[in-house]
Automatic annotation (TrEMBL):
PANTHER family: MICROFIBRIL-ASSOCIATED GLYCOPROTEIN 3, TITIN. The keyword Repeat applies. GO terms for cellular component: M band. This is Titin. InterPro entries: FN3_dom, FN3_sf, Ig-like_dom, Ig-like_dom_sf, Ig-like_fold, Ig_I-set, Ig_sub, Ig_sub2. CDD domains: FN3 (cd00063), Ig_Titin_like (cd05748). GO terms for biological process: cardiac muscle tissue development; sarcomere organization. One of its GO terms (molecular function) is structural constituent of muscle. Pfam families: fn3, I-set. Residues 33-129, 288-382, 385-478, 574-672, 678-774, 874-968, 971-1072 form the Fibronectin type-III domain. Residues 133-281, 482-567, 778-867, 1033-1120 form the Ig-like domain.
């Protein structure tokens, strides 16, 4: 939390005006400094240092370290690292050979708190280490050693020095190479390491009933000790843990929802501790809803309310199921199965009946555990029965009882309670009285008799069911031995102060109480007196004196009992003076005072410190804190800028305020006067052919003044002249694009912070930077919810917004079901996102929408499935299958689009050709064929079929022509004139679509002379045999040669005639034509053709088209 402060001054007149409000200060625990760093390797230009972690991290994990170096003898502390140091080891490079340096380390935790710097390493000289070899051996082994033949012996020796490595050939030994660092013969120690698989760093999802296997490789010397826990608690007994020197394995069989959670594995050895966690989510049915309670009861309904389950089973709660059970039955019946709220009114219920209720949650994996009412609920507007009727006291002539209010009052306030009594062995209940409170005493009972009690709640609608005492109770006096229980065995009070000692007593009948002091009866005076109640006795002493100390005893009449002693101790003394240790964090309006506790606290705990200040120009000490201070530091605010102050501190205990400390030196209230530190971590975040964009962090120190801006300077790599590229007043942001640079030229870059005292130290970009165009392959950031697909009802709107990256900006292409989009979707394109929008969606908008991004670095695609919940499309291929004189059979195929739901049934309508309106035939057809009966023979009918799902009835498919309900054949099809002579005409025709149910035996030909209205039969030389009309195939090709430019598309299409329909084949240069992604053959009932995409020289040649049927074969050539 962040706090601000203000201070009031008070004198004998009163409290004055408040000071100015202080700056905001965030309350954080300080982080301890790291351990003292040590140099483990020193060369002429680098030093490697190591340190230990802080003992206390301030309540937040340590996230990094800052290493500072100082060049001796007169250098300043400067930041040595420009990237975050995570490990406790750092290589400081770029040192000057022969110079001396000091190093120290600052820790930073996750809360953003920096520790104070560690102790310094002490002076370190940058030079290569040379250590002559030497051997240390136990002195007893320097003498002659006598051993018996056959015995074993061992000599230990310590070898010191820096080994050298040399190469040797037949000419001789070459120059040596140094081995880095000092080599000491000892067992190697490595911190533990857990090699967590990247997949385990995500949430591990597993179905209920399956087994969990968490395999984690481990490293470390000596072998670490492994410990597993779940949600910071021990694993359940069924969990199996296997541990070896190289891995650990956690196995849990038959996972359930309760096994969801965070599993943590810890590895620890003498070198450190390492832990990691894996989050496991079990996909299971949800747990029971919580806090199920009755919200309202009427004479026909009960309203329940509840809260969602604690465990949702890894899936969103879809709905709740509410069930009821009469108290006389054993099974529950469902009330509602798709409740989406957290309450439900159950109606209608039978007035006067008692019911149990339960609620279950349902997710994608099923129905979870139930939450049920414990007691049956009576459906009425009278209140529920009172709860928990108990006996609170009893004597030989009376019994006291108490109860709790009903759980539900029936919708109106309970006005009173009726208490009734029944003598054991009798059936009659007698009314005692009515009570507005929830306790009563029944007097005038017969001693030694057993009685039963019951209580009934009454509101303006009537009486509740009675609550009966669990068993009869006898009228008799209760006898308990007296008991005296002082809270403490001794009490202390300051001389002149008052003391009241309240001591509980217990006993039946009520005990008599007497007090003694030092063995003699206690004398009562105006200062000392006793107050007794049925449950307590109290000793009161006003203005205690020294002779009030002593041993006090309490005696009871039926069982004397000595109480604990009450001793008046010698008064405490005042605490000693504290000692001011430091005055730090000096600013223009405040500074922090630190002190150490006094050497003696006067025998009582220090309860407060009083901090006082005095202006050099004043003569009076002024108190700085109004509230109690128990810490050993305090931030004094509200100081006058430029004034000098001294401070002192006094300690306070239960006795009072002790002597103040010696006054501190004078300190001037002013901001520190120095320039800001170097900005943090300068790095390149982008570049083009002529620009470089750099970013940096704030300095660790602002020099005591607000950072006014940042200055960016560049310098060509081969030059030393730095050029300022920002305004002299600096930038107010932490990012800048340096423009007008030379392509391919390498640059050095540095950034300085600026405050009102001047420009601070520069932070230099590590290495050099070059302006060059960055190339990034396209990358699509598809939301996890979009990957699941979009489901919405017809009429809604779809918005598919997809961010992406890529340089250069990728080309955006949307497709639907691998084809082009229609005009309905609207596509919005930007440099970093694209959005596809569809308003007023219908079933035709369902499908797979694919986004493809392409630039010079590659191509990437992602798709989103869209499902529109709508009425289904029209059925396909409706045909008349069979015709009778009183019925027609229809057949069809299911719709191509089911509207996102299963087809429930089909609706069939009919219409006579003389009418305009359709009449329904059936609404319950579940097959794709239907026989329409009860037709009028000879009448002409049209038919239509519609599909229906849970979202409605879709569009219809209709018969194109009217069908005649008869068993005669339908008319012949088209009639063709095939030949004409001076005295004859040759005709051909298509056979009827329906033969009326029997084979066609022949055809009747009629002729009408021109100019007359009469049709008459024409006598034929021979009967006409019903045969299919035949025609030789023919292909109409307008040109023999077609040309196309390379890379362009070519489409050729030619009409084809013939009866029956000819079979078409294509060949190229005498070989069957191969269909590829570029070459495709397109054929219809009347045409044939080819389509060539992006034609190339491979498509050059002669193409042959062959058409064949039962009457003959024909071939035509085309050159491309």
């Amino acid at each position: 939390m962040e706090y601000e402060y203000r201070v009031y001054a008070e004198n004998i007149v009163g409290i004055g005006k408040a000071s100015k409000v202080s700056e905001g200060y965030i309350a954080r625990d300080p982080c301890d400094p790291p351990g003292t760093p040590e140099a483990i390797k020193i060369t002429k230009d680098s030093v490697t240092i190591v340190w230990t972690k802080p003992e206390y991290d301030g309540g937040a994990k340590v996230t990094g370290y800052i290493v500072e170096k100082k060049e001796l003898p007169e250098g300043r502390w400067l930041k040595a690292n420009f990237t975050n140091v995570i490990e406790t080891e750092y290589l400081a490079s770029g040192l000057v050979e022969g110079n001396q340096y000091e190093f120290r380390v600052v820790a930073r935790n996750a809360a953003g708190v920096f520790s104070i710097p560690s102790y310094s390493t002490g002076p370190i000289t940058a030079r290569d280490e040379i250590e002559p070899p030497r051997i240390s051996i136990d002195p007893e082994y320097t003498q002659n050693i006598v051993v018996t033949a056959g015995d074993n012996f061992k000599i230990d020796a310590d070898v010191h020095g820096k080994p050298l490595v040399c190469a040797i050939n037949k000419v001789g030994v070459g120059e040596h190479a140094d081995v880095a660092g000092i080599v000491v013969a000892k067992d190697r120690a490595d911190e533990p390491d857990l090699d967590i698989d990247p997949e385990l760093r995500k949430i591990v999802t597993i179905k209920a009933g399956a087994s969990l296997r968490l395999f984690i490789p481990i490293k470390g010397r000596p072998t670490p000790t492994i410990k597993w826990d779940k949600d910071e608690a021990s694993l359940k007994e069924t969990a199996q843990v296997e541990i070896t020197s190289s891995y650990t394995l956690l196995v849990i069989d038959k996972m359930s929802r309760n096994d969801s959670g965070k599993y943590t594995v810890s590895a620890e050895n003498s070198s450190g501790t390492k832990s990691a966690f894996v989050v496991v989510r079990v996909l299971d049915t949800p747990s029971a809803p919580v806090n199920l309670k009755v919200k309202e009861i009427t004479n026909q309904s009960v309203t329940l309310e509840w809260e969602p389950p604690l465990l949702d089973g890894g899936s969103k709660i879809k709905n709740y199921i509410v069930e009821k059970r009469e108290s006389t039955r054993k099974t529950f019946a469902a009330v509602v199965t798709n409740c989406h709220a957290l309450s439900w009114q159950i109606e209608p219920l039978q007035e006067g009946c008692s019911y149990y209720f339960r609620v279950l949650a349902e997710n994608a994996y099923g129905v979870g555990l139930p939450a049920a009412t414990v007691d049956p609920l009576k459906v009425s507007e009278v209140p529920q029965a009172p709860k928990s009727l108990i006996v609170t006291d009893q004597t030989k002539t009376s019994i006291s009882v108490a109860w709790e209010r009903p759980e539900y009052d029936g919708g109106s306030r309970v006005m009173q309670y009726l208490l009734e009594v029944q003598l054991k062995g009798q059936e009659k209940w007698s009314a005692v009285n009515t009570f507005k409170t929830m306790e009563a005493t029944v007097p005038n009972l017969n001693p030694g008799e057993e009685y039963l009690f019951r209580v009934t709640a009454v509101n303006d609608k009537g009486k509740s069911d009675p609550k009966v005492l669990s068993g009869p109770v006898m009228t008799k006096n209760l006898v308990f031995e007296p008991d005296v229980r002082p809270e403490f065995s001794s009490y202390s009070v300051h001389v002149g102060k008052d003391i009241n000692i309240d001591i509980p007593i217990f006993g039946r009948p009520k005990p008599t109480i007497t007090w003694t002091k030092d063995g003699a009866p206690l004398k009562f005076t105006t200062r000392v007196h006793i107050v007794n109640t049925p449950t307590h006795t109290t000793l009161s002493i006003k203005e205690a004196a020294g002779d009030d100390g002593g041993m006090y005893s309490i005696n009871v009449a039926n069982s004397p009992l000595e109480s604990g002693a009450v001793i008046m101790k010698t008064p405490f003394v005042l605490p000693g003076p504290p000692h001011i240790e430091d005055v730090s964090n000096i600013a223009h309006d405040g500074m922090t005072i630190s002190w150490s506790a006094p050497e003696t606290d006067g025998g009582s705990e220090i309860t407060n410190y009083i901090i006082e200040k005095k202006d050099r120009t004043g003569i009076k000490w002024t108190r700085c804190n109004r509230q109690k201070v128990t810490d050993l530091s305090f931030r004094v605010t509200g100081l006058t800028t430029g004034h000098e102050y001294e401070f002192r501190v006094a300690a306070e205990n239960i006795v009072g305020v002790g002597e103040p400390s010696l006054a501190s030196s004078y300190y001037k209230a002013c901001d520190p006067k120095y320039k800001p530190g170097a900005p943090g971590y300068v790095h390149v975040i982008d570049s083009t052919k002529t620009s470089i964009t750099v970013s940096w962090g704030k300095p660790l120190s602002d020099g005591g003044s607000v950072i006014q801006g940042y200055i960016v300077e560049v310098c060509k790599a081969e030059e030393e002249e730095w050029i300022m590229v920002t305004p002299p007043t600096g930038l107010r942001v932490n990012k800048y694009e340096i423009t007008k640079l030379t392509e391919g030229q390498e640059y050095k870059i540095q950034v300085c912070a600026l405050n009102k005292l001047g420009v601070g130290e520069p932070a230099v970009l590590s290495g050099t930077a070059k302006p060059e165009e960055r190339v990034e392959p396209p990358e699509i950031h598809l939301d996890s919810e979009l990957r699941k697909g979009i489901v919405l009802k017809a009429g809604g709107s779809v918005r598919i917004n997809i961010p992406f990256k890529g340089r250069p900006t990728p080309e955006i292409k949307w497709t639907k079901d691998d084809g082009n989009l229609t005009e309905k979707p609207v596509v919005e394109k930007a440099h970093n996102f694209t959005q596809l929008s569809i308003d007023s969606c219908d079933r035709s908008d369902s499908g797979k929408y694919t986004l493809t991004l392409t630039n010079s670095s590659g191509t990437v695609s992602e798709f989103v499935s869209v499902k529109i919940l709508d009425a289904p499309g029209a059925p396909q291929n409706l045909v008349v299958k069979e015709i009778r004189k009183d019925s027609i059979t229809l057949a069809w195929d299911a719709p191509l689009i089911d509207g996102g739901a299963k087809i429930k049934n089909y609706v069939i309508d009919k219409r006579e050709s003389t009418r305009k309106a359709y009449a329904n035939v059936s609404t319950k057809c579940t097959k794709t064929t239907f026989k329409v009966e009860n037709l009028i023979e000879g009448a002409m009918y049209y038919f239509r079929v519609m599909a229906e799902n849970e979202y409605g009835i879709g569009p219809a498919v209709e018969t194109k022509t009217a069908s005649k309900a008869s068993e005669v054949p339908l008319p012949v099809g088209k009639v063709f004139l095939t030949d004409v002579t001076k005295s004859s005409v040759s005709l051909a025709w298509e056979k009827p679509e329906q033969d009326g149910g029997s084979r066609i035996a022949g055809y009747l030909i009629e002729m009408q002379p021109k100019g007359t209205d009469k049709w008459g039969p024409k006598a034929l030389a021979a009967p006409v045999i019903a045969t299919d009309m035949t025609m030789e195939p023919s292909i109409k090709i307008p040109f023999n040669t077609y040309s196309v430019l390379a890379g362009k598309d070519l489409k050729l299409e030619f009409p084809v005639l013939g009866k029956p329909k000819p079979k078409i084949t294509w060949a190229k240069d005498g070989q069957p034509l191969k269909v590829t992604s570029r070459m495709n053959i397109i054929s219809t009932s009347a045409t044939t053709g080819i389509e060539i995409t992006e034609a190339s020289k491979e498509d050059f040649g002669k193409y042959t088209i062959t058409a064949a049927n039962t009457t003959g074969t024909i071939a035509e050539d085309v050159s491309v």
